[in-house]
Protein backbone atom coordinates (compact mmCIF):
# COMPACT_ATOMS: atom_id res chain seq x y z
CA UNK A 1 0.00 0.00 0.00
CA UNK A 2 2.86 2.37 0.85
CA UNK A 3 4.44 1.81 -2.61
CA UNK A 4 1.16 2.54 -4.36
CA UNK A 5 0.69 5.71 -2.30
CA UNK A 6 4.19 6.92 -3.10
CA UNK A 7 3.70 6.20 -6.81
CA UNK A 8 0.44 8.15 -6.87
CA UNK A 9 2.12 10.99 -5.01
CA UNK A 10 4.95 11.04 -7.54
CA UNK A 11 2.47 11.18 -10.43
CA UNK A 12 0.56 14.00 -8.71
CA UNK A 13 3.75 15.98 -8.18
CA UNK A 14 4.77 15.45 -11.81
CA UNK A 15 1.39 16.58 -13.13
CA UNK A 16 1.46 19.57 -10.82
CA UNK A 17 4.86 20.59 -12.14
CA UNK A 18 3.68 20.73 -15.78
CA UNK A 19 2.98 24.33 -16.72
CA UNK A 20 -0.61 24.98 -17.69
CA UNK A 21 -0.78 26.37 -21.22
CA UNK A 22 -3.66 28.54 -22.41
CA UNK A 23 -4.53 29.33 -26.03
CA UNK A 24 -4.99 33.09 -26.40
CA UNK A 25 -5.30 33.45 -30.20
CA UNK A 26 -6.20 30.57 -32.54
CA UNK A 27 -5.99 30.76 -36.33
CA UNK A 28 -9.39 30.73 -37.99
CA UNK A 29 -11.26 32.18 -35.01
CA UNK A 30 -12.96 35.59 -34.68
CA UNK A 31 -12.67 36.43 -38.36
CA UNK A 32 -8.91 36.03 -38.79
CA UNK A 33 -7.17 33.38 -40.87
CA UNK A 34 -4.02 33.74 -38.80
CA UNK A 35 -2.59 35.45 -35.73
CA UNK A 36 1.07 36.41 -35.61
CA UNK A 37 3.59 38.60 -33.77
CA UNK A 38 2.69 38.34 -30.06
CA UNK A 39 3.30 41.06 -27.47
CA UNK A 40 2.33 41.17 -23.81
CA UNK A 41 2.36 43.64 -20.90
CA UNK A 42 1.12 43.86 -17.32
CA UNK A 43 -0.91 46.97 -16.59
CA UNK A 44 -0.58 48.86 -13.31
CA UNK A 45 -3.68 47.12 -11.89
CA UNK A 46 -2.17 43.68 -12.61
CA UNK A 47 -4.22 42.88 -15.72
CA UNK A 48 -2.34 41.23 -18.57
CA UNK A 49 -2.87 42.43 -22.12
CA UNK A 50 -1.88 40.17 -25.03
CA UNK A 51 -1.52 41.84 -28.43
CA UNK A 52 -1.10 40.30 -31.89
CA UNK A 53 -1.53 40.91 -35.58
CA UNK A 54 -4.86 39.60 -36.82
CA UNK A 55 -4.33 38.57 -40.45
CA UNK A 56 -7.69 38.51 -42.19
CA UNK A 57 -7.14 36.52 -45.37
CA UNK A 58 -3.98 34.45 -44.95
CA UNK A 59 -0.87 33.98 -42.81
CA UNK A 60 1.39 36.18 -44.97
CA UNK A 61 3.00 39.35 -43.62
CA UNK A 62 1.37 41.74 -46.10
CA UNK A 63 -2.33 42.22 -46.75
CA UNK A 64 -5.38 43.04 -44.68
CA UNK A 65 -3.77 42.99 -41.24
CA UNK A 66 -5.26 44.45 -38.04
CA UNK A 67 -3.91 44.73 -34.51
CA UNK A 68 -5.99 42.96 -31.87
CA UNK A 69 -5.78 42.26 -28.16
CA UNK A 70 -7.23 40.23 -25.31
CA UNK A 71 -7.15 41.04 -21.60
CA UNK A 72 -6.73 38.66 -18.66
CA UNK A 73 -7.79 39.63 -15.14
CA UNK A 74 -6.56 36.42 -13.51
CA UNK A 75 -2.87 36.32 -14.45
CA UNK A 76 -3.44 34.48 -17.71
CA UNK A 77 -5.76 31.66 -16.63
CA UNK A 78 -8.59 33.04 -18.78
CA UNK A 79 -8.77 35.71 -21.46
CA UNK A 80 -11.54 38.12 -22.42
CA UNK A 81 -13.12 38.73 -25.81
CA UNK A 82 -11.07 39.76 -28.81
CA UNK A 83 -10.75 43.55 -29.19
CA UNK A 84 -9.74 45.12 -32.50
CA UNK A 85 -7.64 48.18 -31.75
CA UNK A 86 -6.03 49.14 -35.11
CA UNK A 87 -7.63 48.67 -38.54
CA UNK A 88 -5.95 50.13 -41.62
CA UNK A 89 -8.81 48.88 -43.80
CA UNK A 90 -7.48 46.54 -46.51
CA UNK A 91 -3.85 47.40 -45.88
CA UNK A 92 -1.30 46.45 -43.24
CA UNK A 93 -1.07 47.58 -39.63
CA UNK A 94 1.51 45.56 -37.75
CA UNK A 95 4.65 45.23 -35.67
CA UNK A 96 2.89 46.10 -32.40
CA UNK A 97 5.25 47.36 -29.69
CA UNK A 98 3.48 47.91 -26.40
CA UNK A 99 4.58 49.47 -23.10
CA UNK A 100 2.97 50.85 -19.94
CA UNK A 101 4.09 54.32 -18.84
CA UNK A 102 3.98 54.03 -15.05
CA UNK A 103 5.78 57.30 -14.34
CA UNK A 104 3.64 59.99 -15.96
CA UNK A 105 2.24 62.12 -13.09
CA UNK A 106 -0.78 62.99 -15.23
CA UNK A 107 -1.92 59.35 -15.40
CA UNK A 108 -1.60 57.76 -12.00
CA UNK A 109 -3.25 54.51 -13.13
CA UNK A 110 -0.74 54.10 -15.95
CA UNK A 111 -0.96 54.85 -19.66
CA UNK A 112 -0.51 52.12 -22.27
CA UNK A 113 1.32 53.04 -25.47
CA UNK A 114 0.96 50.90 -28.60
CA UNK A 115 3.44 51.70 -31.36
CA UNK A 116 2.81 50.18 -34.78
CA UNK A 117 3.68 50.42 -38.47
CA UNK A 118 1.50 50.75 -41.54
CA UNK A 119 2.49 49.69 -45.04
CA UNK A 120 1.11 49.92 -48.57
CA UNK A 121 3.17 47.25 -50.31
CA UNK A 122 5.01 43.98 -49.74
CA UNK A 123 8.24 44.28 -47.75
CA UNK A 124 10.34 43.21 -50.73
CA UNK A 125 8.86 45.99 -52.87
CA UNK A 126 9.22 48.61 -50.14
CA UNK A 127 12.84 47.54 -49.80
CA UNK A 128 13.24 48.42 -53.50
CA UNK A 129 11.73 51.84 -52.89
CA UNK A 130 8.24 50.94 -54.15
CA UNK A 131 6.06 51.66 -51.15
CA UNK A 132 6.09 53.32 -47.74
CA UNK A 133 6.16 52.18 -44.14
CA UNK A 134 5.01 54.70 -41.52
CA UNK A 135 5.23 54.72 -37.72
CA UNK A 136 2.33 55.57 -35.39
CA UNK A 137 1.16 55.25 -31.83
CA UNK A 138 -2.10 55.14 -29.91
CA UNK A 139 -2.56 55.18 -26.13
CA UNK A 140 -5.07 53.98 -23.56
CA UNK A 141 -5.74 55.15 -20.00
CA UNK A 142 -8.45 52.58 -19.22
CA UNK A 143 -6.44 49.38 -19.48
CA UNK A 144 -6.77 48.86 -23.22
CA UNK A 145 -10.55 49.09 -23.57
CA UNK A 146 -10.57 52.40 -25.46
CA UNK A 147 -7.78 54.12 -27.37
CA UNK A 148 -6.75 57.59 -28.47
CA UNK A 149 -6.62 58.80 -32.04
CA UNK A 150 -3.50 57.64 -33.88
CA UNK A 151 -0.49 59.97 -33.92
CA UNK A 152 1.94 59.79 -36.85
CA UNK A 153 5.55 59.91 -35.60
CA UNK A 154 7.19 58.86 -38.86
CA UNK A 155 9.09 62.11 -39.38
CA UNK A 156 10.82 61.87 -35.98
CA UNK A 157 11.44 58.11 -35.79
CA UNK A 158 11.95 57.06 -39.43
CA UNK A 159 14.11 58.41 -42.27
CA UNK A 160 12.22 57.83 -45.55
CA UNK A 161 13.12 59.62 -48.78
CA UNK A 162 9.70 60.09 -50.39
CA UNK A 163 8.99 63.85 -50.53
CA UNK A 164 6.44 63.28 -53.27
CA UNK A 165 4.22 61.66 -50.64
CA UNK A 166 5.02 63.96 -47.72
CA UNK A 167 7.39 66.92 -47.81
CA UNK A 168 8.63 65.92 -44.35
CA UNK A 169 9.82 62.56 -45.74
CA UNK A 170 12.95 63.87 -47.48
CA UNK A 171 15.83 62.28 -45.58
CA UNK A 172 19.18 61.56 -47.18
CA UNK A 173 19.42 58.29 -45.22
CA UNK A 174 16.73 56.79 -47.51
CA UNK A 175 15.31 54.29 -45.03
CA UNK A 176 12.76 52.08 -46.74
CA UNK A 177 11.33 49.18 -44.79
CA UNK A 178 10.72 49.87 -41.11
CA UNK A 179 9.58 47.72 -38.21
CA UNK A 180 9.16 48.30 -34.51
CA UNK A 181 10.29 45.58 -32.14
CA UNK A 182 7.88 42.66 -32.35
CA UNK A 183 6.92 42.50 -28.67
CA UNK A 184 7.10 44.98 -25.81
CA UNK A 185 9.02 48.22 -25.47
CA UNK A 186 10.28 49.27 -22.02
CA UNK A 187 10.55 52.18 -19.62
CA UNK A 188 13.65 53.07 -17.60
CA UNK A 189 12.75 52.46 -13.96
CA UNK A 190 15.75 54.23 -12.40
CA UNK A 191 18.92 56.15 -13.22
CA UNK A 192 19.50 59.45 -15.03
CA UNK A 193 16.93 58.58 -17.70
CA UNK A 194 14.20 57.34 -15.35
CA UNK A 195 10.88 57.47 -17.18
CA UNK A 196 12.35 57.19 -20.67
CA UNK A 197 10.17 55.12 -23.00
CA UNK A 198 12.41 53.05 -25.25
CA UNK A 199 11.41 51.17 -28.41
CA UNK A 200 13.78 48.94 -30.38
CA UNK A 201 13.26 48.93 -34.15
CA UNK A 202 14.95 48.19 -37.48
CA UNK A 203 15.01 49.50 -41.03
CA UNK A 204 16.57 48.92 -44.42
CA UNK A 205 18.47 51.75 -46.10
CA UNK A 206 19.08 52.27 -49.80
CA UNK A 207 19.04 49.56 -52.43
CA UNK A 208 18.75 45.92 -51.29
CA UNK A 209 22.02 44.16 -50.51
CA UNK A 210 22.25 40.45 -51.46
CA UNK A 211 23.79 39.64 -48.06
CA UNK A 212 21.11 41.55 -46.16
CA UNK A 213 23.50 44.30 -45.13
CA UNK A 214 21.00 47.03 -46.00
CA UNK A 215 19.19 46.08 -42.78
CA UNK A 216 20.12 47.79 -39.51
CA UNK A 217 18.66 47.87 -36.01
CA UNK A 218 18.14 51.11 -34.12
CA UNK A 219 15.83 52.47 -31.43
CA UNK A 220 13.72 55.51 -30.73
CA UNK A 221 12.75 56.97 -27.37
CA UNK A 222 10.77 59.62 -25.56
CA UNK A 223 11.75 61.54 -22.43
CA UNK A 224 8.48 63.46 -22.17
CA UNK A 225 5.85 60.69 -22.10
CA UNK A 226 5.24 60.57 -25.84
CA UNK A 227 5.21 64.27 -26.72
CA UNK A 228 8.47 64.09 -28.70
CA UNK A 229 10.80 61.31 -29.90
CA UNK A 230 14.49 60.96 -30.69
CA UNK A 231 16.43 58.34 -32.62
CA UNK A 232 19.35 56.36 -31.28
CA UNK A 233 22.37 55.68 -33.42
CA UNK A 234 22.18 52.56 -35.59
CA UNK A 235 23.80 49.60 -33.90
CA UNK A 236 27.22 48.98 -35.49
CA UNK A 237 26.34 45.63 -37.10
CA UNK A 238 25.12 45.55 -40.71
CA UNK A 239 22.32 43.05 -41.23
CA UNK A 240 20.82 43.49 -37.76
CA UNK A 241 17.06 43.12 -37.99
CA UNK A 242 14.17 42.47 -35.54
CA UNK A 243 15.30 43.54 -32.07
CA UNK A 244 14.22 43.93 -28.48
CA UNK A 245 15.94 45.86 -25.69
CA UNK A 246 16.05 45.99 -21.89
CA UNK A 247 17.59 48.12 -19.14
CA UNK A 248 20.42 46.25 -17.40
CA UNK A 249 21.95 48.98 -15.22
CA UNK A 250 21.17 52.56 -14.25
CA UNK A 251 22.20 53.83 -17.69
CA UNK A 252 22.84 50.62 -19.66
CA UNK A 253 20.79 48.98 -22.40
CA UNK A 254 21.07 45.42 -23.74
CA UNK A 255 19.66 44.73 -27.22
CA UNK A 256 19.19 41.32 -28.88
CA UNK A 257 18.84 41.34 -32.67
CA UNK A 258 18.10 38.92 -35.50
CA UNK A 259 21.01 38.45 -37.93
CA UNK A 260 19.65 39.04 -41.43
CA UNK A 261 23.06 38.28 -42.95
CA UNK A 262 21.95 34.68 -42.17
CA UNK A 263 25.41 33.69 -41.04
CA UNK A 264 26.39 33.04 -38.31
CA UNK A 265 23.09 31.78 -36.95
CA UNK A 266 23.54 33.54 -33.63
CA UNK A 267 21.85 36.46 -31.88
CA UNK A 268 23.50 39.85 -32.28
CA UNK A 269 23.98 41.47 -28.86
CA UNK A 270 24.51 45.23 -28.60
CA UNK A 271 25.28 47.26 -25.50
CA UNK A 272 24.85 50.93 -24.66
CA UNK A 273 26.17 52.75 -21.60
CA UNK A 274 24.49 56.10 -22.26
CA UNK A 275 20.82 55.22 -21.95
CA UNK A 276 20.52 53.67 -25.41
CA UNK A 277 21.59 56.71 -27.45
CA UNK A 278 24.85 55.22 -28.77
CA UNK A 279 26.36 51.72 -28.80
CA UNK A 280 29.71 50.71 -27.40
CA UNK A 281 29.66 47.17 -28.83
CA UNK A 282 27.68 44.87 -31.13
CA UNK A 283 28.70 41.23 -31.63
CA UNK A 284 27.18 37.81 -32.24
CA UNK A 285 26.84 35.76 -29.04
CA UNK A 286 27.96 32.10 -29.32
CA UNK A 287 25.78 31.28 -26.29
CA UNK A 288 22.61 32.30 -28.16
CA UNK A 289 22.03 30.08 -31.23
CA UNK A 290 19.16 31.24 -33.44
CA UNK A 291 17.45 30.09 -36.68
CA UNK A 292 17.07 33.71 -37.98
CA UNK A 293 14.05 34.63 -35.92
CA UNK A 294 12.69 37.11 -33.41
CA UNK A 295 13.62 36.91 -29.72
CA UNK A 296 12.39 38.64 -26.59
CA UNK A 297 14.20 40.16 -23.62
CA UNK A 298 12.92 41.52 -20.32
CA UNK A 299 14.56 42.95 -17.22
CA UNK A 300 13.53 43.85 -13.70
CA UNK A 301 15.29 45.29 -10.71
CA UNK A 302 16.21 43.05 -7.78
CA UNK A 303 17.76 45.12 -5.02
CA UNK A 304 20.27 47.41 -6.70
CA UNK A 305 20.88 45.09 -9.64
CA UNK A 306 18.91 43.90 -12.67
CA UNK A 307 17.85 40.43 -13.72
CA UNK A 308 17.83 39.96 -17.51
CA UNK A 309 15.64 37.36 -19.22
CA UNK A 310 16.22 36.21 -22.80
CA UNK A 311 13.83 33.97 -24.75
CA UNK A 312 14.37 32.60 -28.25
CA UNK A 313 14.15 29.54 -30.46
CA UNK A 314 17.58 28.17 -29.62
CA UNK A 315 17.91 26.03 -32.74
CA UNK A 316 19.94 26.81 -35.84
CA UNK A 317 17.88 24.73 -38.28
CA UNK A 318 14.27 25.73 -37.56
CA UNK A 319 12.10 27.73 -35.20
CA UNK A 320 12.00 25.30 -32.32
CA UNK A 321 13.42 24.69 -28.85
CA UNK A 322 12.09 27.87 -27.26
CA UNK A 323 14.51 28.51 -24.40
CA UNK A 324 14.34 30.89 -21.46
CA UNK A 325 17.58 32.11 -19.90
CA UNK A 326 18.20 34.40 -16.90
CA UNK A 327 21.31 36.43 -16.15
CA UNK A 328 22.57 38.42 -13.16
CA UNK A 329 25.51 39.94 -15.06
CA UNK A 330 23.84 41.77 -17.97
CA UNK A 331 23.76 38.75 -20.27
CA UNK A 332 27.40 37.77 -20.02
CA UNK A 333 26.49 34.43 -18.41
CA UNK A 334 23.17 32.65 -17.78
CA UNK A 335 22.44 31.07 -14.41
CA UNK A 336 19.03 29.71 -15.45
CA UNK A 337 18.28 27.76 -18.66
CA UNK A 338 14.88 26.21 -19.30
CA UNK A 339 13.33 24.67 -22.42
CA UNK A 340 9.81 26.08 -22.71
CA UNK A 341 8.65 24.39 -25.92
CA UNK A 342 10.26 21.71 -28.09
CA UNK A 343 8.61 19.86 -30.96
CA UNK A 344 7.67 16.20 -30.49
CA UNK A 345 9.47 13.96 -32.98
CA UNK A 346 6.43 13.63 -35.25
CA UNK A 347 5.93 17.40 -35.70
CA UNK A 348 7.92 19.15 -38.40
CA UNK A 349 8.28 22.82 -39.27
CA UNK A 350 8.30 25.79 -36.92
CA UNK A 351 7.06 24.56 -33.56
CA UNK A 352 7.89 27.63 -31.44
CA UNK A 353 8.58 30.93 -33.17
CA UNK A 354 7.97 34.57 -32.13
CA UNK A 355 7.49 35.26 -28.42
CA UNK A 356 7.26 37.83 -25.67
CA UNK A 357 7.82 37.96 -21.91
CA UNK A 358 6.09 39.60 -18.95
CA UNK A 359 6.97 39.54 -15.26
CA UNK A 360 4.03 38.17 -13.26
CA UNK A 361 5.74 38.50 -9.88
CA UNK A 362 9.25 38.08 -8.46
CA UNK A 363 8.94 34.29 -8.69
CA UNK A 364 7.11 33.84 -11.98
CA UNK A 365 7.41 34.97 -15.59
CA UNK A 366 4.73 34.82 -18.30
CA UNK A 367 5.50 33.67 -21.84
CA UNK A 368 3.35 34.35 -24.92
CA UNK A 369 4.52 32.51 -28.03
CA UNK A 370 3.57 31.23 -31.47
CA UNK A 371 3.13 27.46 -31.44
CA UNK A 372 2.84 24.53 -33.85
CA UNK A 373 3.47 26.14 -37.24
CA UNK A 374 1.68 29.38 -36.29
CA UNK A 375 -1.65 27.65 -35.63
CA UNK A 376 -2.03 29.37 -32.27
CA UNK A 377 -0.50 31.85 -29.85
CA UNK A 378 -0.37 30.42 -26.33
CA UNK A 379 0.40 31.69 -22.85
CA UNK A 380 2.29 29.79 -20.18
CA UNK A 381 3.81 30.73 -16.82
CA UNK A 382 7.25 29.63 -15.69
CA UNK A 383 8.58 29.62 -12.14
CA UNK A 384 11.91 31.40 -11.84
CA UNK A 385 12.62 30.99 -8.10
Automatic annotation (TrEMBL):
It catalyses: Hydrolysis of alpha-(2->3)-, alpha-(2->6)-, alpha-(2->8)- glycosidic linkages of terminal sialic acid residues in oligosaccharides, glycoproteins, glycolipids, colominic acid and synthetic substrates. Its EC number is 3.2.1.18. Gene3D superfamilies: 2.120.10.10. It comes from the Bacteria. The keyword Zinc-finger does not apply. Residues 46-361 form the Sialidase domain. Keywords: Signal. Residues 1-19 form the signal peptide. Belongs to the glycosyl hydrolase 33 family. PANTHER family: EXO-ALPHA-SIALIDASE, SIALIDASE. This is exo-alpha-sialidase. The lineage of its organism: Bacteria, Pseudomonadati, Bacteroidota, Sphingobacteriia, Sphingobacteriales.
Amino acid sequence: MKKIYLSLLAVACYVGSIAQETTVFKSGEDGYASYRIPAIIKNKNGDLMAVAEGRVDHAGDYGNVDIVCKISKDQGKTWGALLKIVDYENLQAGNPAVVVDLLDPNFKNGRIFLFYNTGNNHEGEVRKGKGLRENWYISSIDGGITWSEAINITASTHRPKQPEINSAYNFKEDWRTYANTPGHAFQFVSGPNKGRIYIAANHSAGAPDPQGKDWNAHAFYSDDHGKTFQLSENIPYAGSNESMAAQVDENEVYMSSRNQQLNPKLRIVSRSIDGGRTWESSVTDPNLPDPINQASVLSWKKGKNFILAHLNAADQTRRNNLTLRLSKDKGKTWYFNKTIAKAPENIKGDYSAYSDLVLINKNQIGILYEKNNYKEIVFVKQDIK
